[in-house]
């Protein structure tokens, strides 16, 4: 009986040692899991802070974009108003100048053998042209070809096309 009790005690001690070893291993595993959980919580807090910061920056950018868009819309409104003012001013100036006639070029000299502008003689090599606007007689050098309409003297051309001078 004593041997049996000793064998049972030895088996119980062996079992107790194994249970302590398992308990120690489980405690180490729990400690590792707690450490991982702590790191995961810290990472979660960092990500939450980064997310809050990113949301705050996005809201600030959106507010700045909205303000810029409002400024641009106001600028467009101002530019449209200014354009309307300029168009009205242009119309008023056009109405004022509509009744003004362009000055008539100086009449052609009585002598039909001379150019009305440079007073050169018309000869065999210097051709005579009639200005289609003032009907003056001008030479080739004192006239401008205006395409299908024919030729006109420089003075009439300059009066009709001031940007050409």
TrEMBL record:
Gene3D superfamilies: Zinc/RING finger domain, C3HC4 (zinc finger) (3.30.40.10). Keywords: Coiled coil, Metal-binding, Zinc, Zinc-finger. Residues 109-161 form the FYVE-type domain. Residues 2-43 form a coiled coil. CDD domains: FYVE_RUFY4. One of its GO terms (molecular function) is zinc ion binding. It comes from the Eukaryota. InterPro entries: RUFY4_dom, Znf_FYVE-rel, Znf_FYVE_PHD, Znf_RING/FYVE/PHD. This is RUFY4 protein. It comes from Pluvianellus socialis.
